[in-house]
Amino acid sequence: MEREELRPLLRRKFPPHRTYLLPALHFLQEELGHLPEWALQVVAWHLRTPASVVYGAATSYTELRIQAPAQRLVRICSGLSCWHGGGRELLAELAQALGVAAGEATEDGRVALEETPCAYRCPLAPLAEVDGAWLGRARADQVAALLEE
C-alpha cells in the first residue's frame, strides 16, 4: 500500500478525530504488517493529531510494531508467575539457540524473539507465544520444534 492509497482509505473508514487513533493504528498494522513512519505521518494528518501523539501511541502498546516483523515471532511472557516459573531461563535458552538478544531478530530476519508483559495465564507458566499461538509450560525444545515446522 502506498501513501496515496492510504489517505482515501482512512477517509472512508475513520472520521478525522483523535478518538479513532488506536482503531486506525490497529487497522494499519493489519493491512501493512507493521506501522512504518510514513503511515504514522498520514494517520497524524488525517486525524488532525500531532505526530508525537501518534508515535507515542504506536510505541506504547506492545501489540503495535514500528519495525517490519520477522517471518516468525516468538514471545516469552515476563509476568511474575512466568518469570519465576522458568520464563527467564526459557528466554535465555532461546536467545542462545537463536543467537539473538530479546527484542531482536535473527540476521536472516526469519525469527524475532521478544518479551511480552503478563499474558494472564499464570497457572500455565512459563508461557511462550509462537506466531500467535500460546504454549503453556513451555520448554525451549518445544518452541524450537514449532519453529522448525
Tell me how many strands there are.
5
**Percent helix:** 40-55%
Alpha-beta classification: alpha+beta
Order of H and E elements: HHHHEHEEEEH
Could you name the ranges where pLDDT drops below 50 across 5 or more consecutive residues?
A: none
Task: Provide the domain count.
Answer: 2
Give the percentage of residues in beta strands: 5-15%
Give, in spatial order, the strands making up the sheet with the most strands.
Answer: 2-3-1-4-5
Any idea what the shape is? elongated
CATH class membership of the largest domain:
Alpha Beta
The CATH topology of the largest domain, please?
A: Glutaredoxin
Mean pLDDT: 93
| CATH-level-4 superfamily name of the largest domain | Glutaredoxin
Radius of gyration: 18 Å
Describe the structure.
With 149 residues, the protein is α+β, with helices and mostly antiparallel strands. The protein has two domains: 3-60, Arc Repressor Mutant, subunit A, CATH 1.10.10; 72-148, 3-Layer(aba) Sandwich (Glutaredoxin). Helices cover 48% and strands 13% of the residues. It contains six helices and five strands, in the order H-H-H-H-E-H-E-E-E-E-H. It has helices spanning 3-13, 21-32, 37-47, 51-60, 80-98, 140-148; strands at 72-77, 104-105, 111-116, 128-130, 133-135. Strands 2-3-1-4-5 form a five-stranded mixed beta sheet, covered by helices on one side. Strand 2 (104-105) and strand 3 form a beta hairpin. The protein is elongated. The two termini are 30 Å apart. The model has no long low-confidence stretch (mean pLDDT 93).
